[in-house]
Amino acid sequence: MCSIDCCSNPRGKAGEKLDPSNASNRPIIPTPNGELYPYEVIQEIADFIVKGSNMRPKIGIICGSGLGSLADIIQDAKVFEYEKIPNFPVSTVEGHAGKLVVGNLEGAVVMAMQGRFHFYEGYPLAKCSMPVRVMKLCGVEYLFATNAAGGINPKYSVGDIMLMHDHVNMLGFAGNSPLQGPNDPRFGPRFPALVNSYNKELINKALEIGKQMGIEANMHVGVYSCLGGPTYETIAELKALRMMGVDAVGMSTVHEVITARHCDMKVFAFSLITNKCATEYSDKKDDEANHDEVMAVAKNRQKACCELVARLIRQIQASS
């Protein structure tokens, strides 16, 4: 690690004394991730959305790659483009429309993100998961997070749906967390527990809905892991993840779930398996994952995913 003298010296000569009265010579201290979006800024964003939609949502939905049609089934929708929401980031990934939709779905007021923010886009995790806190201050009690993922479990097929009941936070292993920096107790505790992060009651309801839809053979309950991306994983990495008990892998969701649990939201999440991960060495190009394949599979399975979400929301609303 370099010294403060080295980093603060514009000429890069360690040990050389600088004039502290000269502003250009003062060291740049980065803002801690936890302070990128203080409570007051999050509240301003939430107030903007609630006032603009004249609705206070109960359920938040994050649409994964190619699954933006989940937001298209919302009725009486008020649409906010990310770039027009004060202090809101902009998604740069194909398949992520960059819109926030607030409206009614199965009798419940929901807000859905058509496009999320990823670590590989250059955003810190605190910024990637900031919209979850916006949802909380808008009134959201339940977070539905969806993603497109690669299937590591050999029993999984392309087009299957994996309900997430746990995760392996590989980014966290590297010391990256959306909760890094000072903790604001108005959001949640300093050291939140993540055991039972994924609501068991909602998982069981979703499994029953899958039986009613006739897709139970294509549904699983498994463990998801988030890697940083944007590269797809190597064979050795995939083998290691499988040994750790991971069933599907992607580049999102985990930090959103951590943030949601920090502020005491109930979480339901699922992965659409858009490709089978190669765990053996081969020269075949067909074994290599690609974004076009992800988008194509997601498009073909949109209807089933939308129906699953809609029916689950109907049950939540009926029991409230």
TrEMBL record:
Chain segments annotated as transmembrane: none
Reactions performed catalytically: 2'-deoxyinosine + phosphate = 2-deoxy-alpha-D-ribose 1-phosphate + hypoxanthine; 2'-deoxyguanosine + phosphate = 2-deoxy-alpha-D-ribose 1-phosphate + guanine; inosine + phosphate = alpha-D-ribose 1-phosphate + hypoxanthine; guanosine + phosphate = alpha-D-ribose 1-phosphate + guanine
GO biological process: nucleoside metabolic process
E.C. code: 2.4.2.1
Pathway: Purine metabolism; purine nucleoside salvage
GO cellular component: cytoplasm
Domain Nucleoside phosphorylase: 58-314
Protein name, entry field: Purine nucleoside phosphorylase
Natural source organism: Drosophila willistoni
Gene: Dwil\GK12508
